Amino acid sequence: MLDVTDLACRRGDRQLFRSLSFQVPAQTLLHVRGRNGSGKTTLLRALCGLLRPDAGRIRWKGKSIRELAEDYNRDLLYFGHLNGIKADLTGLENLRIARTLDQDPVGDDAILDALARIGLEGFEDLPTRMLSQGQKKRVALTRLILSKAPLWILDEPFTALDVDAVDLLQQLIAEQVADGGSVVLTTHQEVPLTQGAIQRLTLDEADDETPVSGDDPARA
Amino acid sequence: MLDVTDLACRRGDRQLFRSLSFQVPAQTLLHVRGRNGSGKTTLLRALCGLLRPDAGRIRWKGKSIRELAEDYNRDLLYFGHLNGIKADLTGLENLRIARTLDQDPVGDDAILDALARIGLEGFEDLPTRMLSQGQKKRVALTRLILSKAPLWILDEPFTALDVDAVDLLQQLIAEQVADGGSVVLTTHQEVPLTQGAIQRLTLDEADDETPVSGDDPARA
Amino acid sequence: MLSVFYSVLARDILLALRRRTDVLTTLFFFIIVISLFPLGVGSEREQLQALGPGVVWVAALLASMLALERLFAADYDDGTLEQLLLTGQPLALLVLAKVLAHWLLTGLPLVLIAPLVAMQYHLEATAVWVMMAALAVGTPVLSLIGAIGAALTLGLRGGGILLSLLILPLYVPVLVYGAGAVTVSAIEIADTEPYFYLLGAFLLGALVLAPLAAAAALRISLE
Amino acid sequence: MLSVFYSVLARDILLALRRRTDVLTTLFFFIIVISLFPLGVGSEREQLQALGPGVVWVAALLASMLALERLFAADYDDGTLEQLLLTGQPLALLVLAKVLAHWLLTGLPLVLIAPLVAMQYHLEATAVWVMMAALAVGTPVLSLIGAIGAALTLGLRGGGILLSLLILPLYVPVLVYGAGAVTVSAIEIADTEPYFYLLGAFLLGALVLAPLAAAAALRISLE
Amino acid sequence: MIDFLQQGGYAGYVWSAFGMTFGLLLIEILQLRSSHRTTLTRIARLVRLRTPRRKPAAGAGQDSGAASAKP
Amino acid sequence: MTINWFKFASPAAFYPIAGRLIPWFGGIAAVLVLIALYWGFFETADRLGGSNPQKEYYRIIFVHVPAAWMSMWLYLVLAGWSAVGLVFNTRLSFMMAKAVAPTGAIFTFLALWTGALWGRPSWGTYWDWDPRLTSELLLFFLYIGYIALHSAIDDMRRADRAAALLAIVGLVMVPVIYLSINCPDPNQCAALHQRSDPGSIHPSILIPMLTMTLGLWSYSFAAVFARLRNIILSRESDNAWVRDVVAKEAV
Ligand code: HEM
Ligand SMILES: Nc1ncnc2c1ncn2[C@@H]1O[C@H](COP(=O)(O)OP(=O)(O)OP(=O)(O)O)[C@@H](O)[C@H]1O
Ligand SMILES: Nc1ncnc2c1ncn2[C@@H]1O[C@H](COP(=O)(O)OP(=O)(O)OP(=O)(O)O)[C@@H](O)[C@H]1O
Ligand SMILES: [Mg+2]
Ligand SMILES: [Mg+2]
């Protein structure tokens, strides 16, 4: 369970948000929304610990993520604007390494199955450099299939994907939530969820004075 | 009017499409569709002359684009997966240079107006490096507002944009078509068009033997 | 035509001034490489005098080559190069503008700083003048030839070092005559003219051919 | 822990082998830089002998530095570095693995090729052995120190040349003692020991401190 | 014979020159042969992989392929 | 030779032709090399007198000079096919250029290696910055540059064209490079000119040397064709005719 109190971030000389407090319990999806440039990516990177916020605390299972450091990272799967795959390695190799680094190696069969599920059958042996925009994204998303991390933080995971892949990804997110995990994601699309709770958080820079809107939980 | 006959392209050792023939007359939008990796980007780059197809001819106003060379480029506006803006320059500077290179310089006022229209008021003087993903895309899209090119080739222009920006872009495309221009675009979304013709072209790699499907024009 | 040439030139200079450190860094690299040698070789006056011209030229070669790596790469990464290719202008002209901007920002400073580093090697005043003149004629050739290599290695992993592999052998003539002119000037004066004729001929040849070759290379690399 | 170390090591070596030329390119860069000097300086035997150790070391410095530029940059550009930071492993360990892979691929070949290039400078057999030993101890220090610079300049435009500015001054001690050992060995034998003690001390110090510093630098650069 | 092998005391130079020459050429020949064989087997494997894969791919592709049904 | 190469410009047509030619060239090469070796070792004097006395080590000439000549000739071939490829956009020319490069690099290396081994007894040093040696070294770098660039790019078409352009740029530069190191001081260029006309060499040396050159030339044909066949196979692997070939040859 992720617990954020009084978070504030500024980039350049703009205050993006402040006094932001919310919680993401298990079995919950937090959908962060907002216009382009409202600070979604900034918030997500702060939640991962990649960016140090100006104020506020972020706690995971009751402990500050700064203190948890590597222990927090083990519980976390972050998916950013960049895919995080090596263009010179094949999809299979990329995923094999990703699993080893998470200290949870799985067999090649499991990886191949996952790649097939995401629609990359026949492309497992190509360096990812040779894949199209959307196929690269799919390779990166295969990490979601293999992951056991309880917390997923996904920054616009739907871009560049075709309709099939979008469906599959929505399904994966729903499974993660159903299995007791938490997901924080940004997207400009809607995310249907059949089980568990969707919270929405809207970052709105329009009025500078009032604190940014809080959570409005909504059962799906 | 863009006229494509018998086009064939292969990347790596896969034949992406062949015997592809279609035309894009004035006042027409061609929506290229297909799964991830079906060759949409490849086709668009070939149409721009950036990539030499394996076979087939591409003609613009009756002449081969290879022969027209720079004259064709002047009639063309291409918008690829990359934004094509310099991160170290401000939006204003970026657009000023783009206009000069197209040998059609416009005053700063016109550029500022265009930037305001696309929702970047207040951000004109920031190096684009300091903008969010979606804001960068918007800077690049401002070129569409300023452009007089009769042919637009747009590769997934809708990604990373929020709802407002998507609306605006759809409107720009509609205007271009209404004004007698042609647009070729790929996207996984639908493109409503109030005037002019939408053609759809689906690239489908499934069956290797039969030539890729032709055009199925459809009035909107 | 000229407005486009000028616009690309202005753009590249503006970009460099946005990141002023870049310009200084090439300069410092040049100075540091030159200063490293006496540390590795020892500091006997005569030996240093004999080494001076060669070392300065090799350092100029390396500095120019290092800076070249970014000549097109930055534009390639952010997609502006694609846009340049599609501008409806002769690409060779745009390349020439970019190379000129590049030389003004990295080559020219080397020429101007040369007297300072020459001091470290106890070179005579005449030798210093000859060196500056030789650098002024030679470094544009380096930039022009290098542009071809930069265009060919665009977007390749380990591009920087591959570039040097391709380009350094081609730099040899400039190195030989550039350093030769300075060495000769130290012995007997007035005989450096043939060197300058040759360097000048290289410059002319490179001015005509290199932009065309680099433009062709760019088209190939972007395919 | 060790499995992760090993996995990163294997990954980087695999990546390099995917592009086998990369490894060779560093090597050839080294050879070319060394071959350029006689062309600029002239080819008198004694002068070359005096020059040899210095040139070899400066070339090793440059080769190592150039290759270092890509040490983290490639991972940064494609987002895998972000993922490495979030792996739940001590970052310094991962850095050490990356540096080790880097040295095996770029430093070690230099050590092995050294005799060949020494020939071009007419060095004696003992001097060649001393040079190989000195390179074997010295080049890992270069890689380790360079890693800090590479981490600091990550994602900066003109990173390559800024890196050299930061790093080359730090390389000076290695250069001085490395080249010194070779020069001394040519004069009177058996006196090279102190040089090696010092180089060894540098290596130990760098092994302990550099990964920590580089890890900290990475966190800063990614913020 | 010994005389011949010694080449007037320059055996080292002469034989390493000739040895390297014909050794390298031999290596090139062997390398060309083996790469011819590996190319053949690789392509043979590719062909074999492609032909039977058609069937299962069509079958397995049914569920994922149905979603992307042709218009 | 007025063969219309365009007729054979299709890889599919050239593959079997090359296959039939290889044994011939290989056989001729073997015969010529053996003759040259026999002649060189048993039918020539052990010592050379004259203005430039040499002992047995001069026999290195029988591999050194042919290797040096082949290295230069093959670079011309490489650049030539590259130019043809760029101008006419024929796939086979690029493959030809690519096939030539490794053999050329090997001969260049051999010229350097044998030259060094000759230099030690003759000049007392393995290496000197003599213009000829230096230009041979630079030629080696050009070959390596071509190969490195080609293999650094994995899009075949881009690799072919980029490397071809590099080869042509190198060809333009070679005379300039040669001029500059052959006469580093333009004031007294003529004085430094090297004497080297084959006519001054005794026939009993010249003949095996030329025989060896022909042998290695023939060998180059065989090696280049063999490599070309491999390249054709792997590049055309999804064509029907390749499958037939594979089915036949891979028994
Ligand atoms: C461009 C490449 C080269 C060519 C065409 C070439 C050609 C020749 C020829 C024709 C000779 C016969 C003697 C003469 O005419 O002087 C010769 C001699 C010789 N070459 Fe080369 N060579 C080349 C490169 C090299 C290299 C790279 C080396 C050494 C590393 C070398 C070392 C020698 C030596 C030591 C001799 C004997 C000279 C003497 O003592 O008379 N050559 N070469
Ligand atoms: N540089 C390359 N080298 C080899 N093959 C490539 C290269 N780039 C793309 N391909 C192949 O070409 C095919 C088509 O790629 P392309 O980028 O045109 O697809 P796309 O339709 O734009 O897909 P997306 O919707 O994911 O953007 C892909 O299957 C990919 O495997
Ligand atoms: N490196 C930076 N330096 C300074 N300001 C920055 C930087 N990166 C982003 N910003 C500013 O921070 C704001 C928020 O950026 P962020 O990337 O978080 O937006 P976002 O909500 O993710 O937008 P998008 O939907 O476009 O991805 C932007 O307005 C931008 O101006
Ligand atoms: Mg964002
Ligand atoms: Mg695409």
TrEMBL record, chain E:
Keyword field contains Membrane: yes
Ranges that cross the membrane: 12-32
| Keyword set, alphabetical order | Cell inner membrane, Cell membrane, Cytochrome c-type biogenesis, Membrane, Transmembrane, Transmembrane helix, Transport
| Membrane disposition | Single-pass membrane protein
Q: Give Gene Ontology CC terms.
A: plasma membrane
Locations listed in the record = Cell inner membrane
The GO biological-process annotations, alphabetized, read as: cytochrome complex assembly; heme transport
Q: What does this protein do?
A: Required for the export of heme to the periplasm for the biogenesis of c-type cytochromes.
Protein family: Belongs to the CcmD/CycX/HelD family.
What is the name of the protein in this document? Heme exporter protein D
Q: Which organism is it from?
A: Halochromatium glycolicum
